[in-house]
Amino acid sequence: MEMESIIEYLENKTILVTGATGFLAKIFVEKILRIQPNINKLFLLIRASDSNLAMHRLHTECVCRYDVALAINTLGVEHLSCFVNECPNMKLLLHVSTAFVSGEKSGIIFEIPFKMGETLNDKNHLDIREEKRVTQERHRQLIVEKANEEAMSSAMTDLGIQRAKLHGWPNVYVFTKAMGEMLLLKRLRQDVSLVILRPTIIASTYKEPFPGWIEGVKTMDSFIAAYGKGMTSCFLAHPNKVLDIIPADMVINVMIIAMGAHINKPVSMTIYHVGSSMSNPLKISTFKNCVIEYFAKHPLKSQQGNPIITSKTIRLLSSMSSFNRYMVIRYVIPLKVFKYLNILLGRAFNAWYLDAERKINIIFRLASLYKPYVLINTIYDDANLNKLHDISEMETFFFDVKSLNWEDFFMNIHIPGLVKYALRK
To answer: Rounded to an integer, what distance in angstroms lies between the CA atom of residue 275 and that of residue 255?
Structure first.
């Protein structure tokens, strides 16, 4: 399907967008309205109507807290498929998942679907109804125990990690996303075409609607921000690991091209990996050097307006054991010493101690969450994605990751965008 026919096809069509307050959804809606202002209707499903705080909290809980992640990433997808099944004119469902549903598998990961009940460790049969039952039972127990919100969140996060690892996934987010894919394949009406996009780490926009746009600080950006603020000079990552990154607007262009490619064809189910590890691999060492060079040239300012001096080197901790050892020596042991001093001083610094303990626990959890992205060498096959190049017009729907110069992208687009749109708010 040529570019003109995709745009023409969108004329007078109706599109439902779920998660419409999300970063990708905003770029998608902007692009659709710009290339086809004569679309019939856009229905935008919005979960929260108040502040950005609600969205930030929702994102955090979808990543870590099992009851919330299960409700949205898994059962929410099932509810969506039931809704689609009641819409007789619905022709296509495009679902955005994540490439990291592959868990901690190394080597080449192919664009193939999960089977219902499949696990990554082949040790147990995965029963999604049982996962729901276990979660509800634990929730009831916590209510009986009169657990406060913090205790409830912590317990549900721990439960999620336990259940994910039981079946071979490293964290709650990718586990619940994988179960969502399973339910979608099982529940969706057979005469509706299904496209599942599995993007890798989503970076800022490359071109549209303007270069460098990003919302929030996630995955690799957490390290960039911490380094730029002078808070760290180490990074959990293997130097030879390929960091799989894709600009956000390229993901959107693939979404639109995939819609056009499948809408007028016989009913089909297709999975697309949208990433860079196969076509234009980025080494962690290249990423590290870009971060050092950028902040050496463009230091952030402290609250007093002074340039923040960053380390000239970044130490890469290439295993979880080396990371844990570093954290224990640098932070955990000193904090334990401070704990006893605080007791001797009548707990005068109790608030500071509890805050520091909380932050250290968060760092350990984030390390566990991000381990698959920075330690395990995984290459995501993009054979299906490459077929779309034959039917796309690259100036309008640009997604040729091979043409990206990573040094230029980080130095002139991504890190400046992160500083402008996320760190200076």
So the answer is: 13
Helix axes 350-374, 333-344, angle to 10 degrees: 170
Give the Cα separation of 179 and 173 in Å (integer). 10
Burial class (CB in 10 A: 0-12, 13-18, 19+), 144: exposed
Alpha helix segments (H runs only) across 199-302: 220-228, 248-263, 284-297
Using one digit for the tens of pLDDT, what is the confidence trace for 179-193? Answer: 999 999 999 999 999
Type of residue numbered 197: L
C-alpha 407, offset from chain centre: 22
**Separation between Cα atoms, residue 197 and residue 296, nearest integer Å:** 37
How confident is residue 145, by pLDDT bands cut at 50, 70 and 90? very high
Task: Judge contact between 321 and 367, C-beta under 8 A.
Answer: no
pLDDT (tens digit per residue) in 100-128: 999 999 999 999 999 999 999 988 889 99
- What is the chain's Cα-based Rg? 23
Q: How far apart are CA 357 and CA 369, in angstroms?
A: 18
Whether the bond between 209 and the residue before it is cis, its omega within 30 degrees of 0, is yes
In angstroms, rounded to a whole number, what is the distance separating the alpha carbons of residues 152 and 149? 5
CA–CA distances in Å: residue 138 to residues 162, 165, 176, 350, 389: 13, 17, 17, 31, 48
Give the Cα separation of 414 and 247 in Å (integer): 9
